[in-house]
Amino acid sequence: MLTVAIIGTGSRGATTYGDYLVELKDKVKITAICDIDKNKLKYYQNKYQIDKKYCFDNSVDFFKAGKLADVLVVATLDKDHYDHAMNGLELGYHLLLEKPISPSIEECVAIEKKAKEKNRYVVVCHVLRYTPFYRKIKDIVDSNRLGRIIHIQSLENVGYWHQAHSFVRGNWKNSIETAPMILAKCCHDMDLLNWISNKKPLQVSSFGSLSYFKKENKPKDASARCYDCKVRKTCPYDAIRYYVENTKDKENLGWPYDVVVLEPTNEKLKEAMKTSPYGKCVFDCDNNVVDHQVVNIQYEDELTASHTMCAFSKDCYRTLKIFGTTGDLEANTLTNQIIVHDFLTNSDDLIDVTKINDDFTGHMGGDHIMLNEFIALLENKKTSLDSSIEKSVSSHLICMAAEASRLEKGKVINLDDYKESILKTIE
Ligand SMILES: NC(=O)c1ccc[n+]([C@@H]2O[C@H](COP(=O)([O-])OP(=O)(O)OC[C@H]3O[C@@H](n4cnc5c(N)ncnc54)[C@H](O)[C@@H]3O)[C@@H](O)[C@H]2O)c1
Question: Which atom of ligand 1 lies at the shortest distance from residue 81's CA?
Fold first, then answer.
């Protein structure tokens, strides 16, 4: 029986991973949890049936208790990953480490080094690599059906409500407390570009800014919280409409409502609007992360890629267009369709991913597939995984170089030089 400890029993650590691991009870047992939120700790102690002495309300006591399982799931907030991962590796845990590895590239490299030294697996939760959707795209590119890949264009439609929830009111609103938007939201996209292109990234440049969610755009009569705001009916970002009116008469409320309150109900959400950060005016939060950003990447062999993230879309989805010399590919995660155009035969092949995948829960099925493959790896039924610390550090490097470029008005950054300058600081 494989044993698992979880540090950070929030949306990812508990709702996504813990709850699914409980379903795999024939092969996995959760033996310890740690969370600074005592309500959550109690709730998951009961839910997962864990001995009270293995439930910790602080990380110091948790790590002092020694190695309590084979695997440690690190699902705390971005800036704590380094401490929790390093302590976990020191004790001999294999890690399932939430992305980003760390907002500091120096710390990413240090975790990579420690994992090698301790000979432990560190699987970074780049869950999109595990989805049947992106695996199909990767197969098509690797089969050479599109010929030589010349350019890749990727677009992340964040969703206006998702931006407001996570990146204006929520955990990832301020890069000083967490990570810059391009790392927090788009390290998946950079990872996909590296993986699909299978080329070395050489140079990066980027532009972007926080243009809308700031004090100067707050309507004259708006108040600090939506519940007593006179102009809320004219605002698309009204928290009362989103969290309260939309949940009337609804049961089994999941994400993002369970981020606002534990076991959400309409009544609990209504109450939270008076005190929770999720009830604040979007023009009156301590946010600084961008609401739109573009990144250009020069890969080896003259392959170019561009990635755009933008808050202002109705839905939350990604599109990808891959331009090859003998065909192109268009993919859309909203429609779950991949279309391959063959230039020679002038024919289109439409692949409906709903026909090759039956579980779309949690990142289009990627969350559960990743967990199952990680378990198979630890049971020696697999020899490697699609995501690893080595592969992930490269995507994090692109994100941090893109952020450095954005802050320097689009200056071109050479990735080898950038990495070298960082390595020098930790030698
Ligand atoms: N792989 C993905 O696609 C994906 C998606 C969303 C979030 N994430 C990442 O997952 C991580 C967790 O995000 P989340 O959405 O679950 O956030 P969350 O706020 O729901 O959960 C974090 C939990 O950690 C706890 N915590 C905070 N500091 C702690 C400490 N020092 N010791 C112990 N517990 C502590 C909090 O109380 C909370 O319960 C973040 O790094 C985030 O960037 C990854």
Answer: 41
- Give the residue, out of 43, 95, 98, with the most ligand 1 atoms within 8 A of its beta carbon, to mutate for a pocket test: 98
Fold topology of 2-124: Rossmann fold (3.40.50)
Structural Rg of the chain based on CA atoms: 22
Ligand 1, atom 36: closest residue by C-alpha? 8
CATH of domain 128-213+288-359+389-426: 3.30.360.10
Q: Is 12 a pocket residue for ligand 1 (Cβ < 6 Å)?
A: yes
pTM, 2 dp: 0.94
Q: Where are the domains of the chain?
A: 2-124, 128-213+288-359+389-426, 215-279
Closest to 122 measured CA to CA, from 363, 374, 379, 399: 374
Q: Which one, of 159, 41, 225, 186, lies nearest residue 100 by Cα?
A: 186
Give the residue, out of 11, 33, 80, 125, with the most ligand 1 atoms within 8 A of its beta carbon, to mutate for a pocket test.
11
Low-confidence ranges of the chain (pLDDT < 70): 426-427
Ligand 1 centroid – CA 8 distance (Å): 6
- For residue 358, the model assigns a pLDDT of 80
49 vs 421: CA distance, rounded Å = 48
Question: HSE of 25 in the Cβ direction (CA atoms, 13 Å)?
Answer: 5
Cis peptide before 132 (omega within 30 of 0): no
For residue 99, how far is its CA from the centre of ligand 1 (angstroms)?
10
The tokens 């190695």 sit on which residue? Answer: 67
The confidence score (pLDDT) of residue 357 equals 80
